[in-house]
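ok so I'm stuck.
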Amino acid sequence: MVAGVLLVALPALWLGARGLALRSGHYSSDVSADRASLVLLVTVRLLVLLLVLALTAVTLVSAVGAAVRDLELPGLVPVFFLLDLLLATLVLLTFGRRARRRPRRRATPATR
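replied:
not stuck anymore, here's the structure
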């Protein structure tokens, strides 16, 4: 469980924080609608990142604490772990990925 959180959720938090305010490239002609959509987009992304952070912290503290004290893991921790992995995957596949650069256009032979 700890390895899953360290390998998936923490990189998702890092990459998601970097891509928090990035745009998808779809722009509206109305400036106020464009601003409102950006505010909504950033707010939802921030809420998802905060939820991933909270689930990651709860999972790590519970798993490490149970391993150190030789206690049984509480029943909701596996549920939190799976929810954390699902949300981290959502972050990685949406706004946490690197923006693809468009390939350069080749020069036409007529301009040479």
